[in-house]
Every structure is written in structure tokens, then in C-alpha cells.
Specification:
The protein is α/β, with parallel strands linked by helices and 569 residues long. Helix content is 34%, strand content 14%. A 5-stranded mixed sheet has the order 2-1-5-3-4, with helices on both faces. The chain starts with a strand and ends in a 6-residue tail after the last helix. The structure holds 2 iron/2 sulfur/5 carbonyl/2 water inorganic cluster. 2 iron/2 sulfur/5 carbonyl/2 water inorganic cluster binds at residues 230-232, 268, 272, 299-300, 323-325, 353-355, 358, 417-418, 502-503, 506.
């Protein structure tokens, strides 16, 4: 341990701690902008400067390790003036149009200006806009004028996701964060995961806004507007309304969507259960008939885009199942349309997703098996929060309501899709019982749970051993893909989710999503699973009815047409 003095208080911290951490221990919150608790970025914004007695210059608290006996002053006139000056310099190169900014009132720069008492502009500012917005992708928008060059997005893209689609370009005053080669985002190997938008402190990168098209559909008397909500939303939407992270708010979420005016409120967990039936049978078929193994899950669209860019020769390892989002849309415009007696051209399907890449997925050419796009609009958790605020709906006061039929009954297996390892666990719950024809001794496959990057397990299907692996975050996915490439992956089934922690950590989740919050949301997902009377997809009575009334059998002709696809890029 090392002993230091912060503003007159003595504290002991582990060797290697930064001044920032030592100050935290002393109960002092040093302001920062580039620093992020999950990333290694530091000393870019120079807001966290402090005095260290004996040092000739101010030190950046986020990057400077403490030494034994160090005396630190975090709140002197010199420190306050330097922080203010550094912030004003940042503001001098930042548009002053907070009202028009997607991050208005959720902007770290704006909050810091308020905290440090910066009210007026001390330096001349350039004319805006200086750089054009990049709206080339269907999922994300880059606004380079807003960028403060903090490098968080670069770090998350390179180190956490292992993608490296964006990075610093040019030098000095000309420095910008740009897609590789200065191209538009759509022209580089960006997977649209949106993790950059989750860590951006300002409004420099954010999701394509679908709220206006959803308002328009809701106001259109011709349209029958149905909404599906992803497993991960129920444990995060409360955060948009100030609830503590990871509160399970399923019933309030349903009520909120009904108050917004949706004609039917359905649960993507229903088609998560359906995915398990189709994907489970596909796995059994591949195991029995010498199909391509390991089979890899295909429900995460950022992961699909990643394998298309970086490992296209392994596309036949993907399950042919569409994602639950897309299965839902295909069924809404066929089975549901028939049942409800509504012309599918008048059905408008909205998804509430924790994911920015889902906006890309719904526009893929493979995703219109009914003759219409399966899904018409995708709202992130953040966009849903925005719409509910616009409508004046007091989320926290809402009653608990139930999803609508026929896509309202779900199982715990569907819920756990939202956490890394959940698709695997849900599949194992079903595959075990289908293959062995015996009840599972325990439904909890804890070895595949948690935020750890790569998890492994072996399951004995009464004589047939199935070795499985689970990766979350694309840097971890790359490790598994390299094992497959080297012929060293002896797995039969792999789950890969694009985002750290799985969908609960998706790029469309509330600002403030950190790994600590992800862990809480994962716990909440399993809490929701435990609270349901049914926890295995094949026990879902509504899924059984769907097969009886419409699909026939798993992997049958109708399933093949509506619920499966092939990625061939
Ligand atoms: Fe997901 Fe999925 S779990 S991909 O993370 O398979 O986004 O929540 O909806 O489609 O069900 C996301 C979440 C989601 C799909 C399901």
C-alpha cells in the first residue's frame, strides 16, 4: 500500500493507483471528461489536473500514479483556473447548439461546464457546421463537429470490440476521429454495434433516429402498429427515468407502450423461445448428420456483420435461424395478420431493442420473407425513453400490465437471451430434454453465465458429449474464430454476442452503461428468469399452438421460408 495526502486527508491506496483513485478514496470526485471506468483512455482532455507538491507543473489525475508520501491538492485557485481554461478551450471548438443536440441534458461536456461555472465563451469560435455529418449507415450518425477528441470511441472500437473501424487522423489543430482512410462509416468494416455511442461523452456519434417515423405510424389511422420488446429492455428502461440500474420493470414497460398508442404490445422473448426450438433442432440435425460444426448462434446482427467482414469463409457455421427480432416481424405479417384478419400491408412492426445494429438488420434484403419488411422501425432503449418523455408518460407511476396474445406468453429461457450465455443456456435446456427425453436435473447452466469474455462447458446428453463455448464482445469472438481457423476449436456449439455482457450491454442502452451496470443487469435477467413459471422454451404453450396452427414442425417448410435465412456475403 502507498500512503498519500489528498487535500489534507491521509489515505492508503494500493501501489499503482492513480491520483484520481486516491482522491476517490478520500471522498473527492475530481472532474474528468476523457476518463471512463472501463477504458484505458487518459490525459486527453486535461480537465482532471491537480497540484502535486514538489512537481513543477500540474498533473493529470487520471494518468499519474501516486507515490508514497505524495501530497496532492485538488482544489486550489490554480487548479480551478486551469480546469476552467481547458474546458473553455474545448468549448471554443464545439458547436454551441445544445438545444439541437441529441445529448442535450445528457452531455458530459455540458454538465461539466455547469459544474465548473463556465457560463460565457472566452475564446472566438469557428463557424458551424465545419464538417459534414456522416449519415451513411442505417444505424449510426457521426457528427464530427461535436467530437472533443477524447478517444473513448477509438478505445472501445479497437480494444473492446477488436474492430478498429475508427481512429485518429491528421495532426495538431486538424486532428479528427475518422473511419479508416477518411471514408464514410458505411464504407469501412464498422459492425454498427454502437458501443462508441455508449461511451461518447457528447453528441458526436449516436443512433439513427426512428422516433419520428414511429410517431407518424402511430398517428396513421390506416396502420395497425404492433410493438415487440427485446429481453434486455425490461432491465434497463427504468434507468431512463432515474430508477437504480437493473430494476426489472416488465409490467411498467408494457403499460408505457400501450399508453404511447401501440395497438398490440408483444414480447420478443416469445420468438426467442421459437428460435430455441428451431436452432435446437438445427443443432441436433447437424450433430446427427455430419453438418458444419461448431454451429454458431446468429441472433446478434453486429456479430453477423463482423463475421461477414472478417471471417466470411466461416459463414456456413452460422445457424440459419433469423434473429428473434426478425422471426417476430415475419410472423406478425403472416400468422398474426391472418389470425387478426388484417392486411399485412397495414401492419407496422416496431421493435424496442438495446442494440443499434438491429436498425441495420431490419433493412437487410434477407429480411422480408412475407413480401414486406419483417420489421419497419427499431427504437433503442434511449429512443423509447425519449418518446415516453415527449408523451409526458410518468414511467415510475405506471401500473404493471401484461403482454398481448398470441405473442405474450414467454418463458425464462426467452428472457435470458438478453445476457451473455443466455442463448446457449436456453438452447441446452431444450436440446437436453429433446435428445434424452428426460427432464433436466437442473435448468441452471451456471458455467455459461456472467460477464467473463469467454466461457466453456461440456454437457452430457446421456452419452453424447456436447462441448460449448460462449463469447461476448467481438475481441473475444475473434479469439474463438482464430481457434476455429487453426483447427483447435473442439466445440460443437458456440454462442457469440456482439456486445460486452450480451444485449444487456448493447450500444442502444441508456447512457451510463458501464461494466458494473452490466453485471447488475445480468443478475436482474436471471432474477426475471427465476420468477417465471415456465423456464424452458419447448414448454411455451403459445409456441406449441403456433406450430399446431401454422408452422407445422420445427425446420419445416414454413419455418424454412419465414424463420431461416442464409448469409452469403
Ligand atoms: Fe437481443 Fe435477441 S437477445 S439479439 O440481444 O436474440 O438486441 O435483448 O432482442 O433478436 O430475443 C438485442 C436483446 C434481442 C433478438 C432476442
Amino acid at each position: 500500500m502507498v500512503s498519500v495526502t489528498v487535500d489534507g486527508q491521509k489515505v492508503e491506496v494500493p501501489k499503482g493507483s492513480t491520483i484520481l483513485e486516491a482522491a476517490q478514496k478520500a471522498g473527492i470526485k475530481i472532474p474528468t471528461l476523457c476518463h471512463h471506468e472501463d477504458l484505458k483512455v487518459n490525459a486527453m482532455c486535461r480537465i482532471c489536473v491537480v497540484e502535486v507538491v514538489g512537481a513543477r507543473t500540474l498533473q493529470t489525475a487520471c494518468s499519474q500514479p501516486v507515490t508514497d508520501g505524495m501530497v496532492i491538492i485538488t482544489n486550489s485557485p490554480t487548479v480551478r483556473q486551469a480546469r476552467k481554461m481547458n474546458l473553455e478551450l474545448l468549448l471554443s471548438n464545439h458547436p454551441q447548439d445544445c438545444l439541437n443536440c441529441v445529448r442535450n441534458q445528457r452531455c458530459e461536456l455540458q454538465a461539466l461546464a455547469d459544474q465548473l461555472g463556465v457560463r460565457a465563451q472566452s475564446f472566438p469560435t469557428p463557424k458551424w457546421p465545419e464538417y459534414p455529418k456522416d449519415e451513411s449507415t442505417p444505424a449510426l450518425v457521426r457528427d464530427p463537429d461535436k467530437c472533443i477528441l477524447c478517444r473513448r470511441c477509438v478505445e472501445v472500437c479497437h480494444e473492446v470490440q477488436g474492430v478498429g473501424a475508427i481512429g485518429p487522423a491528421n495532426r495538431g489543430m486538424e486532428t479528427q476521429i475518422l473511419p479508416a482512410g477518411g471514408e464514410n462509416l458505411n464504407d469501412v468494416a464498422c459492425v454498427l454495434c454502437g458501443q462508441c455511442s455508449l461511451v461518447c461523452p457528447v453528441g458526436a456519434i449516436y443512433e439513427q433516429d426512428h422516433t419520428e417515423r414511429v410517431w407518424a405510424a402511430l398517428a396513421d389511422p390506416e396502420k395497425h402498429v404492433v410493438v415487440q420488446t427485446a429481453p434486455a429492455i425490461r432491465v434497463s428502461i427504468g434507468e431512463e427515468f432515474g430508477l437504480e440500474p437493473a430494476r426489472v420493470t416488465t409490467g411498467k414497460l408494457v403499460a408505457a407502450l400501450r399508453r404511447l398508442g401501440f395497438d398490440r404490445v408483444f414480447d420478443t422473448d416469445f420468438t426467442a423461445d421459437l428460435t430455441i426450438i428451431e436452432e435446437g433442432h438445427e443443432l441436433i440435425e447437424r450433430l446427427n448428420n455430419g453438418g458444419t460444426l461448431p454451429m454458431i448462434t446468429s441472433c446478434s446482427p453486429g456479430w453477423i456483420k463482423y463475421i461477414e467482414h472478417f471471417y466470411p469463409e466461416y459463414l456456413d457455421h452460422l445457424s440459419t435461424c433469423k434473429s428473434p427480432q426478425q422471426m417476430f416481424g415475419a410472423l406478425a405479417k403472416t400468422y398474426y395478420a391472418e389470425k387478426a384478419g388484417i392486411d399485412p400491408k397495414n401492419i407496422y412492426v416496431v421493435s424496442i431493442m438495446p442494440c443499434t445494429a438491429k436498425k441495420f438488420e431490419c433493412g437487410r434484403p434477407e429480411m422480408s420473407a412475407s413480401g414486406y419488411p419483417d420489421v419497419d422501425a427499431v427504437l433503442t432503449t434511449r429512443e423509447l425513453g425519449k418518446m415516453l418523455r415527449q408523451a409526458g408518460i410518468d414511467f415510475n407511476q405506471l401500473p404493471e400490465e401484461q403482454f398481448d396474445d398470441p405473442f405474450g406468453i414467454t418463458t425464462g429461457a426467452g428472457v435470458i437471451f438478453g445476457a451473455s450465455g443466455g442463448v446457449m443456456e436456453a438452447a441446452l435446456r431444450t436440446v437436453y430434454e429433446v435428445v434424452t427425453k428426460e427432464p433436466l436435473p437442473s435448468v441452471d447452466f451456471t458455467a455459461v453465465r456472467g460477464i467473463e469474455g469467454i466461457k466453456e462447458a461440456e454437457v452430457d446428453l446421456k452419452g453424447t458429449k456436447v462441448k460449448v463455448a460462449v463469447a461476448n464482445g467481438l475481441a473475444n469472438a475473434r479469439q474463438l474464430m482464430e481457434l476455429i481457423k487453426a483447427g483447435k476449436a473442439d466445440y460443437q456449439f458456440i454462442e457469440i454476442m456482439c456486445c460486452p455482457g450480451g444485449c444487456i450491454g448493447g450500444g442502444g442502452q441508456p447512457i451510463g452503461t458501464t461494466n458494473a451496470v452490466r453485471k447488475k443487469r445480468i443478475e436482474a435477467i436471471y432474477e426475471a428468469d427465476r420468477g417465471l413459471p415456465l423456464r424452458k422454451s419447448h414448454e411455451n404453450p403459445a409456441v406449441k399452438t403456433l406450430y399446431e396452427e401454422f408452422l407445422g414442425q420445427p425446420l419445416g417448410e414454413k419455418s424454412h421460408h419465414l424463420l431461416h435465412t442464409h448469409y452469403t456475403k
